[in-house]
Specification:
This protein has about 270 residues and is of the alpha/beta class. Helices cover about 45% and strands about 15% of the residues. The protein contains 11 helices and 10 strands. The protein binds D-glutamic acid.
Length: about 270
């Protein structure tokens, strides 16, 4: 297998990163993916940097054993806490979702007022604010942690669900008062309730989905490094492989509800051994 034909490693704390994998499949359809969801240790959102870094290093070691040519940290919390270290420690490209989201938010805002929603870890890391203000120090960033969104999405209480709508009103009510014109969906799960978030925030607020932006950044990076796969995928090939640390069946069930094809099996692996 040439370097160009090798897969992309994508990881997340669980199912959420499938929203990023889905964007990669849509936007760079010739690329193969090895996905790892850390379903035994999810959620990452309330854990310390030290713990997230340890978990992320194990996952990267596992993905590298699968001969990936690049790694995408699909989880916002892990991107916020571990991207710098993982990029420095690896001789293949490692990208996260936070930078792409920050970049597009800067290009989108007209009134220099940007909101960010995410897990407690992502918001308290302050990384979105830091990256946005590195690009444009005039932009004011207002962060809000929304920890209940992830379980609601995983419960399948997505768009049109009255309870999710009420929780969204409660979390985002104060953001609505802050006159933001751009809102970053800074957590893997949030694009799956995008329409409720959009209804609550109103038409004047543009929603930024870092998952899509990351896929575009990855495509450009692979092109620059001459690592894009130019060969069409084989008709009978299953180009994507899925691994988890626990509960493979419920992972596959969720994956099948959001991916455009059926996952036959997700394999459980002993991630603590890596
Ligand atoms: N994947 C996480 C993120 O994007 C959300 C779920 C979790 O807390 O682990 O931050």
């Amino acid at each position: 297998m040439t370097d160009r034909e090798k897969p992309i490693g994508v990881f997340d704390s669980g199912v959420g990163g499938l929203t990023v994998a889905r964007e990669i499949m849509r936007n760079i359809p010739k690329e193969r993916i090895v996905y790892f969801g850390d379903t035994a240790r999810v959620p990452y959102g309330g854990k310390s940097k030290e713990t997230i870094l340890r978990y992320s290093r194990q996952i990267v070691r596992f993905l590298r054993s699968q001969e990936v040519k690049a790694i995408v940290i699909a989880c916002n919390t892990a991107s916020a806490f571990a991207l710098e270290e993982l990029s420095a420690e690896n001789d293949i490209p490692v990208i996260g979702v936070v930078k792409s989201g920050a970049k597009v938010a800067c290009a989108t805002t007209k009134n220099n007022r940007v909101g960010v929603i995410g897990t407690r870890g992502t918001i308290s890391s302050g990384l979105y604010t830091e990256l946005i203000q590195e690009i444009n120090p005039q932009i004011e960033v207002i962060g809000k942690a929304c920890p209940l969104f992830c379980p609601l999405v995983e419960e399948n209480w997505r768009n049109d669900d009255p309870i999710t709508k009420e929780v969204t009103e409660r979390y985002l009510g104060e953001l609505r008062e802050k006159d933001i014109d751009t809102l970053i969906l800074g957590c893997t799960h949030y694009p799956l309730i995008r329409s409720i978030i959009g209804q609550v925030m109103g038409e004047q607020v543009t929603l930024v989905n870092p998952a899509y932006e990351t896929a575009c950044q990855l495509r450009a990076l692979l092109q620059d490094l001459h690592l894009s796969n130019n060969q069409p995928l084989q008709k009978d090939e299953q180009p994507h492989r899925f691994y988890v640390s626990d509960a493979a069946e419920s992972f596959s069930e969720f994956a099948n509800s959001i991916l455009p094809f059926e996952i036959r099996d997700a394999k459980k692996i002993p991630i603590e051994e890596y």
